[in-house]
Structures are given as C-alpha cells and as structure tokens.
Amino acid sequence: MEVEAHAADRPPRRRLLGRHHGDTCLTVWLLVLVLLIVGGVVFIVIDSNTSARYSVAIDAVSGLDPVATDDDGRDPTLDPVFDLTVSISPRSRIRGRDCYQPGTTVEVNYRDVLLASGPVEQLCARATKTRRGRAVAWGTGVRLPGFVLDVLVADVRRGGVEATEFDVNVKIPSTGDGYQYNPGTLVSCRARRAGDDAAAVLRTPCDALSANIVVPLPNTGRTQTGGAS
Q: What transmembrane ranges does the database entry give (predicted)?
C-alpha cells in the first residue's frame, strides 16, 4: 500500500532556503575573518623584518687641492671639507621610530683611504616619513699615498670635483642593553658623486649592515684621516 505524503509533512521550501542562506553567510564571514587574521599576521611579519632606508648626498666639497709642504720628501697634504645631507626613511608602519642615534659619525673615503669625518646629529623619523639633516666631515693635513693622490688629482682635473666618486660610511652606535639592546649599524654608501642631484641621490638607499659599532665617548666625530700624524 502506498502512502501519499501530505503537504503538512514536508518542510517548507522557504524555511529550507533560509537555513541554507544563513549557513552560506556564516561560512563567508568565517572565511573573511580567517583571511583578515592571516593577512594581519603576514603584514606584521613583513613589517617587523623591514629595515629603515638610509641615504647620503654630497652637496659640496672643498680643500682637495694638494698643499705643498717643506722639502722633506713627504707627500703634499689635503684639508678636505664635505658638506653632506643625510636622510632616514623608516619602512615600518607599526613600530616606533628609526634614528641616527647620538654618537653617529660620518666618514668619507677615497680609494679606501679616509679623507674626512664628522659627527651626525640625532635624526629620527616615524612611519614612512623621510627626515633629512645636515652634516659636515672634514680632515686636516691629510696625507695620501702617492699613487692615490695622483689618481685623485687626475680625477678632479678630468671631470672636476663633481665627477669624482667618494665612498661614505655612516656609523650608528649600539644603544641600550639587555632586552632593549639594539646593535649598531654600518651604513655604506658606495660611489657618491659630489654635486649630483641631491633629491635623486637621497632616494637611492645605502647598504645598511648590523654590527657593533664602537664609538669613543665623548664623540667629536673626529677620526684619524689619511696618513696624517
């Protein structure tokens, strides 16, 4: 005997569709929540592993004309002065600020010979805002090995000081201790030309390497240059 189901025994079609729609919405919201959590974790990981960008521009140079000394058989000396612009641009959007810490020094080299050095005032930036500051590096009575001096003079005569390439190192000392300890940073700016477009140069980041930078205190920014005695 076949029993025919009555309409009252069947679940309402509208009720079944509503329940199915509710389950779909819940699934979508759960999926969105998971994606937001995963995205947030990925953002934090990437942000925490992103370093600040440091750059240096050489605005002007003077004192590269060799100064003859007494006839003692020694090489002529230089009294170089470099006017510099330093910049820092943090990449982190959630961490604190990044800084050129107190005690930071800047050194200008030519062919691996130190020409000039000087202090860099503390300069900090937050979020992705770039901050810029001025610095002066100088040397007095700098003696270069004969072959290095010859190459420098030839470079300056051939293209002027503006076309001569120098290497700039910025040494940011370590700060804090224990849990708050931050290792020092050596910022290496290779082949900086004097008189280049400062804005373009400052957009080109230098290589920043973490290291323990030892800076004598009190720091005057002065270091032994060239072969001066």
A: 26-46
What total number of domains does the chain contain? 1
Q: Which residue has the tokens 């592993």?
A: 49
Task: Give 124's strand partners.
Answer: 99
Is 198 within a domain? yes
* Residue 22 lies inside a defined structural domain of this protein: no
pTM of the model: 0.74
141 to 76, 146, 149, 199, 223: CA distances (angstroms): 9, 15, 13, 32, 13
**Assigned domain for 223 exists:** no
**In a domain? residue 28:** no
| Cβ neighbours of residue 74 closer than 8 Å, sequence gap 6 or more | 143
Q: Domain range for residue 116? A: 51-210
145 vs 9: CA distance, rounded Å: 104
- What tens digit of pLDDT does each residue of 67-106 get? 755 455 567 889 999 999 999 988 766 666 788 988 899 9
The phi-psi region of residue 69 (left if phi > 0; otherwise alpha if psi is between -120 and 50; otherwise beta) is: beta
At CB < 8 A and 24+ separation, what contacts does 221-225 make?
A: 221/105, 221/106, 221/117, 221/118, 221/119, 221/120, 221/137, 222/117, 222/118, 223/105, 223/107, 223/114, 223/117, 224/114, 225/114, 225/115, 225/116, 225/117, 225/139, 225/140, 225/142
Radius of gyration for the chain, computed over Cα atoms and rounded to the nearest angstrom:
31
- Distance between CA atoms of residues 35 and 48, nearest Å: 20
203 Rama sector, left if φ>0, alpha if ψ -120 to 50, beta otherwise = alpha
